[in-house]
Amino acid sequence: MNVIEEHHVEGLESPTRLQDYNLSNFTYISTKSALKKAIKRQQILINHQPTSTATWLENGMVISYISSENNAAKIFKLKVEVVYEDHFLAVINKPAGYPTSGNYFKTIEHALPFNLKKSKFPDALNLPVPVHRLDNVTQGLLLVAKTIQAKSLLSKAFQNQKITKSYRAICFGRFPKNTIEISQPIDEQQAKTIISVEDTMIINSEIFSLVHLNPITGRTHQLRKHLQLLQHPILGDQLYQGNFRTNLPHKGLYLQSFQLEFTHPIDKQLIKINIDLPEKFIKFIEQN
């Protein structure tokens, strides 16, 4: 059993339920949701015994936060590009064709231990975990947590829209103006995307546009659905391109997560990471 942090309860004026305990007493737990999950996983001990959210705390009790059981890891030996890495987090360049996570062996999550170093901090996760998802067919930057605290803070930052993700796509047709904002709901949920046209090209007598996409919200297939609604679907999108067809030098979806901008959860420095245009985008554009 690895103790991540431990302290004695003091200063309470009356008994307090564990679920209502002041989170500032924890270094590595920053939200009530994270506390409840840790309790459910039996990572919170009171006087060295498993507990529940209904436990009443009194002065003098000892609260221990322990690491979870280290089950045998499923490691998928897929080499991926590591764009950034420190003790707390990493950013990788996810290849298209693999799900981020899920009930499969060949996922990006299962490939992370093969590519990243384990954190040396007390709250190191047994295995690094993605803190957001990219579709199976989407390539590009994926943010990964390596410690419990980083995972909690990055997840909270995503919920509060404090992390900016930018995408590139090649779409059918010419857009009517260089910047478009679409706020069409998706699955009855609010959704907003900002589209900026970078270039327009004619290839084999057909018109295509290279665009930057900034999703303000994060609905499933949001970018793909919004571009379909505008009648400018993404090249290679088997789900949403409808009757739009063209010959492609490379198969797959022409959508890339190319930029991440966020405040580092631990040292509070601004991090902005960019990657180059993918090879298949270049090959297509060179036909212009």
What are the main properties of this structure?
tRNA pseudouridine65 synthase/23S rRNA pseudouridine1911/1915/1917 synthase, 288 residues, Pseudouridine synthase, Structural Genomics Hypothetical 15.5 Kd Protein In mrcA-pckA Intergenic Region, Chain A, PsdUridine_synth_cat_dom_sf, catalytic activity, acting on RNA, alpha+beta, single chain, 5 helices, elongated
Order of SSEs, N→C? EEHEEEEEEHEEHEEEEHEEH
Largest sheet: 10 strands, mixed
Query: Total domains, how many?
Result: 3
Q: What is the count of helical runs?
A: 5
Shape: elongated
**What average pLDDT do the residues reach?**
91
What's the N-to-C terminus distance?
A: 61 Å
Radius of gyration: 23 Å
How much helix, percentage-wise, in residues?
Answer: 10-25%
Helix-strand category:
alpha+beta
Strand content: 25-35%
Uncertain regions spanning at least 5 consecutive residues? none
Q: Mind telling me which CATH architecture of the largest domain this is?
A: 2-Layer Sandwich
CATH topology (level 3) name of the largest domain:
Pseudouridine synthase
CATH superfamily of the largest domain: Pseudouridine synthase
CATH class division of the largest domain: Alpha Beta
Count every beta strand, where a strand is a DSSP E run of 2 or more residues: 16
Q: Could you walk me through the main structural features you see in this protein, from its secondary elements to its overall organization?
A:
Strands 7, 8, 9, 10, 11, 12, 13, 14, 15 and 16 form a 10-stranded mixed beta sheet that branches. This protein has a 4-stranded antiparallel beta sheet with strand order 1-6-3-4. Strands 2-5 form a two-stranded antiparallel ribbon. It has 3 domains: 3-66, Roll (Structural Genomics Hypothetical 15.5 Kd Protein In mrcA-pckA Intergenic Region, Chain A); 71-160, Pseudouridine synthase, CATH 3.30.2350; 165-256, Pseudouridine synthase (2-Layer Sandwich). The model has no long low-confidence stretch (mean pLDDT 91). The relative contact order is 0.13. The protein is elongated, with a radius of gyration of 23 Å. The protein has helices at 32-40, 108-115, 148-159, 222-229, 279-285, and strands spanning 3-8, 16-17, 44-46, 49-50, 56-57, 62-66, 81-85, 89-94, 124-130, 139-147, 164-172, 179-182, 193-203, 206-215, 255-263, 270-274. It contains 5 helices and 16 strands. With 288 residues, it is α+β, with helices and mostly antiparallel strands. The N and C termini lie far apart (61 Å).
